[in-house]
Amino acid sequence: MMSISKMASVLTTPRRLVDISAKTPDNYRSMHEQSPSESPVSFARRQAAEWFVRLRADDCAVTERQAFELWLAEDEGNRREYDAVHRLWDELDGLAPSFRTFAPEAATRSRSRLRQAWAAAAVVVLVLGGLLFFLSHEPGVYRTAKGEQQSVQLADGTIIHLNSDTALQVADSVRAVSLRQGEALFEVYSDPARPFHVNTGAGVIRVLGTRFNVRSHAEYVRVAVLEGRVEVESPQGEKRLLSAGHATAWAVGGAFTVPVESFDQRTVLAWREGKMIFDATPFSDVVEEFNRHSTSPLHLGDPALRDITLSGTFRIANREEFPRLLERMLPITARQTDDGAWILREAHRP
User: Is the separation of the CB atoms in 307 and 315 below 8 Å?
Assistant: First the structure.
């Protein structure tokens, strides 16, 4: 059971999920409006907390409950966040009785008391939402969901841009980060006396001040240098020095897999412009890249599709249209399953 002092510390967190100003049923429509600063995960978390409170009000209409069921069915993440709120509420048994007895009483009184009830409900939402963030957030760890990007500025002035589905841990006392998964673009502030280190769990990158991109894959790590110079070290201890315009890669737990080579900067940084760029790219790689950005993944239903290549530029924001676009561009069919995934198969010609 969480203590009152711990709950109070959550209330003071700078990342409040809702405002504690008085709410009424009319302005509860704000739960459906995502603010520009909210990530998709934070938005779903706030909606879950607000729905939880609204459903427990005596004046909650049947149409609202129907709207809730539709919201719940919209996305698997909505149900996951709502279940988390429900579990947390069950543990806050010291707070729950006071709210449950207050809401019915307020429903039979004047409008001013009703507004007080909604103000109290908003505090409950704040506690629930804040606790969810507090319990799920690791200090110094930044995460992005599929389809989300984030930029982080460190205390030394270094800026790190996180791509979709990425996890990054930052050390407080030294210039070092750990890229747990995903992809990030680093703009490292120059400090010759204090080198900057990036640990991928499968190799180390050391720099003084430069700009470079790191992709940490389950099977390999790839580093591309845009400005300055970077020293990379494989898990086997082999080191390479990369200058601007050059890249290399190594296998997780193994040696370098490609020599130092030049790269297409436009393609490497396409994600920073919200794009996916393919140039005669094997279809299996296309599917993998798309799945990094979408909660409705593509699956190859026919092994023969791996031999197909694709070229073109596609906007990540239009990812919901991507499967149908593939049908028009390639000899394939796309069928969506009940869980939202897409099965791609070779089209049968007459």
Answer: no
- Name the DSSP class of 193: T
Residue 208 carries which DSSP code?
A: S
| Strand, helix or coil for residue 316 | helix
pLDDT band at 136 (very low <50, low <70, confident <90, very high): very low
**Taking the domain 274-346, which CATH number applies?**
3.55.50.30
Question: The tokens of 298 are what?
Answer: 């593509």
Please determine whether the domains at 142-264 and 274-346 fall in the same fold group of CATH: no
Q: How far apart are CA 232 and CA 244, in angstroms?
A: 13
For domain 142-264, which CATH number applies: 3.40.50.150, 2.60.120.1440, 2.60.120.330, 3.10.100.10?
Answer: 2.60.120.1440
Q: What is the pTM of this model?
A: 0.58
Instruction: Identify which of 171, 172, 202, 205 has the alpha carbon closest to the alpha carbon of residue 186.
Output: 205
Helix intervals (H) in the chain: 4-11, 40-54, 62-74, 76-91, 96-107, 111-136, 265-268, 283-291, 322-329
Beta-bridge partners for 159? 153, 187
pLDDT, tens digit (0-9, with 9 covering 90-100), for 187-244 = 998 888 888 889 887 888 888 778 999 998 888 889 999 999 999 988 888 888 999 9
CA 166 to chain centroid, in Å, comes to: 7
Are 64 and 57 within 8 A, CB to CB?
no
Kindly list the domain boundaries of the chain, sorted by start residue: 4-136, 142-264, 274-346
Q: Which residue has the tokens 């070092």?
A: 176
Q: Is the dihedral of CA 182, 324, 272, 306 positive or negative?
A: positive
Phi, psi dihedral angles at 323 (to 5 degrees): -60, -40
Q: Are 181 and 165 in contact (CB under 8 A)?
A: yes
Query: Residue 39 has which token pair?
Result: 């990530």
